[in-house]
Amino acid sequence: MKYWLTFNETNSLLHAPFMSGGVNTPKDELSEQTLYQAMRHELVASARATRIAREVAPAAQIGCMVLSMPVYPLTPSPADALAVLDFDHSNLVYGDVHTRGTYPGYFLRTLREKGIELEITPEDRDDLKNTVDFVSFSYYMSVAASADPEKNVKGEGNIMGGIPNPTLEASEWGWQIDPVGLRIVLNQFWHRWQKPLFIVENGLGAKDQLVEVDGVKTVVDDYRISYLNDHLVQVGEAIADGVDVLGYTTWGCIDLVSASTAQLSKRYGFIYVDRNDDGSGSLTRYKKKSFDWYAEVICTNGGSLEA
């Protein structure tokens, strides 16, 4: 069985139109009408690609890919709960179209209230009915939401917006560390869309230090091991909840340039690459402590995880 994805993190298009939609115009020069029309183009293109893939490879499974970000009310106020609903609507509409084949009513209301009319043909509407076989997603963090404008301050590094949750710790780049949020989003997506799920990105960006242990250069990244262990334990909990999880892959197996910050010093991998933000370095590669740890997780199918 082969699994294919159409577009990456489609639901971040309005926030990062070049990276998520290939829109080669600065965001501040784009109108809302243009951004929503770009969204329409990408969703229709994804559905058409899904249809064509089924024609040329009937055994393939075709999925979408979205950025997941569970959101909690900052307070128990009903107004904050409604702010969560609004945040979810803006984030989940892409998955709704990918899996249901039509624009949901709440999104049509948003367009009406913004005075936006999408150019969409009857052929487009038919094509959208080519829904995906599974939903894949990235998961790095969660956020909070509030109806109070004075509290509604975007957290550091939050591409999609959202308020930092005061109950959670954060990475060096301000991303909230929330393993339980992964179980929550797995349940949310499963119950909402009833499609198998695939976690295709999850990991911790950190400033690793190369050291020598027993004569071997490595990185003692216990912080990364702890992060991944705790998230994978929650994946196991979601499977026990009845969620159909197809698989899990980290971001990423080797250090590379971070898409969000264009830095190599924001390292995610199990393999350290001797390269610096200024381009200096030998490109020599070294296994981190997490390398053998993750190999054991794979070999034991999660049996080596610590709950």
Short description:
This protein has 307 residues and is an alpha/beta fold. It is 37% helix and 14% strand. A five-stranded parallel β-sheet has the order 1-2-4-6-9. Strands 3-5 form a two-stranded parallel ribbon. The protein has a two-stranded antiparallel ribbon with strand order 7-8.
Q: How would you explain this protein's 3D organization?
A:
- This protein has 307 residues and is α/β, with parallel strands linked by helices.
- It folds into 2 domains: 3-201, Glycosidases (TIM Barrel, Alpha-Beta Barrel); 208-243 and 254-307, no CATH class.
- It contains 8 helices and 11 strands.
- The protein has helices at 17-21, 32-56, 78-100, 105-114, 122-128, 179-193, 222-240, 289-299, and strands at residues 3-5, 61-68, 71-73, 134-139, 143-145, 197-201, 211-213, 216-218, 245-248, 271-273, 285-287.
- The strands form 4 sheets. The protein has a 5-stranded parallel β-sheet.
- A hairpin with a 2-residue loop joins strand 7 and strand 8.
- Helix 2 (32-56) crosses helix 5 (122-128) and helix 6 (179-193) packs parallel to helix 7 (222-240).
- The longest helix has 25 residues, at 32-56.
- It is globular and about 65 Å long.
- The relative contact order is 0.11.
- How many E strands? 11
**Computed CA radius of gyration, to the nearest angstrom:** 20 Å
| Global mean pLDDT | 95
Output the number of helix runs. Answer: 8
User: What is the CATH third-level topology name of the largest domain?
Assistant: TIM Barrel
Arrangement of strands in the largest sheet: 1-2-4-6-9
Q: Identify the CATH homologous superfamily of the largest domain.
A: Glycosidases
Task: Quickly count the domains.
Answer: 2
Secondary-structure-based class equals alpha/beta
Ends apart, CA distance between termini: 32 Å
**Helical proportion, percent range:** 25-40%
Characterize the largest beta sheet: strand count, sense, and whether it forms a barrel.
Answer: 5 strands, parallel
Under the CATH scheme, the architecture of the largest domain is Alpha-Beta Barrel
The geometry reads as: globular
Unreliable parts: none
H/E element order: EHHEEHHHEEHEEEHEEEH
